Structures are given as structure tokens and as C-alpha cells.
Amino acid sequence: MKLIECPRDAMQGLTDFIPTATKTAYLNSLLRVGFDTLDFGSFVSPKAIPQLRDTAEVLAGLDLSQTRTKLLAIVANRRGAETAMDYPEISYLGFPLSVSETFQRRNTNQTIAEALADVAAMHELCEQRGKTLVAYLSMGFGNPYGDPWGPETVAAFTRHLAALGVRVVALSDTIGASTADTIRPLFAELIPAFPQIEFGAHLHTTPGTWREKVQAAYEAGCRRFDGAIGGIGGCPMAADELTGNMPTENLLSFAAEVGEPTGLDMAAFAWARDEAAGVFGAAIH
After folding, report:
1. Which of 53, 74, 281, 284 lies 20 to 30 A from 124 at CA?
2. β-strand 37-43 against 70-75: which pairing, if any?
3. What residue stretches are annotated with the Pyruvate carboxyltransferase domain (predicted)?
């Protein structure tokens, strides 16, 4: 299993600003664990996400000399992607492409048509500069706005991305609405239909539903999973206050059960979890 740790998602919604030095120390502890990818920060308007206004400063303090982990930064438009191009340390750019028109406008202040135009431009830019675009299909398992949704909607977006040449697509459960009955058939349909694409699962969950979600995605062929230590973060629009990111601890437990190697340094993981408790305190699930 390929594990993507998402401290950026864990931090971005917190009201109190985490000092740059604290962020940097925590991310360095995560780099020592050996995750495949670290979703470490974002190049978006500081007015939109004030918590991550110091991403460039944090990046300058990261020790990448003895890690296999690749860095991923979230961008919300072409301007953010162009900024990220100045940093050769970053391997992946992540863009939240919503299958919900309402959420696309709320999240990136764009229509879906405008977002797709940006995706095309950003993918081309990544190809030119040796980076990879990760398209997050947010609201991928339904939305609370009444916008059209169904497996055929998600498949249509995926076909468009495949035609552009996008190679990594993460189906994103933005509000924790997914169930095994929506997760399993979607991955089971898309993975064989688009063998050139690596599909990931960015699943938000409550403590009681995580296993059925991970198991459904895994049994349908998904091997790329996003998580956050302690289940920190998630979408503020979720109705259930217990809804958060998929806890990395649970992903590791599931991987052990099914005999999937992760390649993680578990001593370093224990240290990083202690660091997380210092950063997030009582928010750790």
C-alpha cells in the first residue's frame, strides 16, 4: 500500500496559527517515517488559508537529505502552480477538482469549466518542469447541494482527465458521505477502465466507519490511501463533528491485517505521533 500523509489537510482549518518552526519540526519528523508522499503545504491565497501562509518558509527548513518521501503541495489555480514551479523539491501538485459546481465555486472561486481549463494548463506546466499533477475529485461520493452526482458523473470527469494525460486521480470523500456501497463499485469500475491512471482514496470518516471504507476501496483494487495522524482535519461543512481525515494509524492497522507492506519506519512513526500530540493537542482522535 502506498500511504500519503496529509499534515496540510490536518493544519489548514485550525484557527490558531502554528508557528513556522513548529510546523517545520513536525514535518521533518514525518519525513523520517518514510511515507510515499507528504502533502505538506499549499500555494493558495493567505486570505483563503491563513494557516499555510508560511509554506515557502516551511519548505526551506525541511530536511530532504535522508528521506524517500516525495513532497506534494496543493494549488488552487494556475498562479499557485506557477509559484510552486520555483521549488524543485516539490514532486507533486495537487488540485481540488470538484464534481459539484457549487463546491468548485466555494472552494476555488471557479466554475468547473474554468477549473478544467486550469487543470489542462497545470498538467502541461508539470510535464514541462518534471512534476506530476494529482487531481483530487472532491465531492466524489456525493454532495449536500443537490448538484448532479453518480458513478457516471465521476467517470465522465475521469475520462476528461485521462484525455489530458493526468496520471494520478484521488477520489475524495469531502464531507464523509461515502459508504462501502458507493466506494466499492466506483473504484471497481474506474480502475480497470483507466489502467494508465493511479487511483487514490482520500476518505473522510467517523471513528466507527473507517474500516468499511478502507476495505471497500482496497477490495476494489485501490492501493493509494491518504491519511493524517490522529484523524486530524477534514471538511468544516461535515455535519458530524467526529468526521475527520482517515487516521493513518487505522491505515497501518489495516495494512498489517491484509499483509500489505508499507515500508514505514515504525519507531519514527511513534516519534512523529508524539510530535503530533504536541502540535494538535486534544484534537488528536
Report:
1. 53
2. parallel
3. 1-270
